[in-house]
Amino acid sequence: MNNSAFNSYESILNIIEFYRIQPRIQDFQIEKIEEYLILMSAHYQESLREIDDCIGLSEPVCLEDIVDVLNSYLNKVGEELEKIFPENINVFSPINIHSNAKIIEIQALELYRNFNGGESDLYRIKEALDCLDNNIYEEDFAENFALLTKDILSKINSDLIVKVDDLL
Fold first, then answer.
1. C-alpha–C-alpha distance, residues 127 and 90, integer Å
2. E strand or H helix at 115
């Protein structure tokens, strides 16, 4: 288990322990919370590994693969959220890629800007997108794009952990 996975698991255990000592929480609720947190963490860790694999390849980082990892995560999490929170209508919408053609840097930025909700800055990545935009022709753009995707995954995962209170 790598350090990130261990820290995530330790955080999950701390959250579960916090809820165990709450007088209003029943055992079946603890089980539901535990299942939810472990499942969401597993999807998150898997997606981080996939991005690391994309970065670690000897070939240049493929922007389509990075967007696919994010979409895959959003789909998996969306399916689980529908089971747990059936009253919520699709909390996460995957990034809509209009063709199977190769994604170039400017398209990747525009896809993420749309995903981020434009000026509403849903995932708090507007500054990072602007920075990437300023370095669009740099050699390490794809790697930085992958790191931004990891940041988005982290923010979504954090939001999902906070959503635990809604389970109760």
1. 26
2. helix 105-115
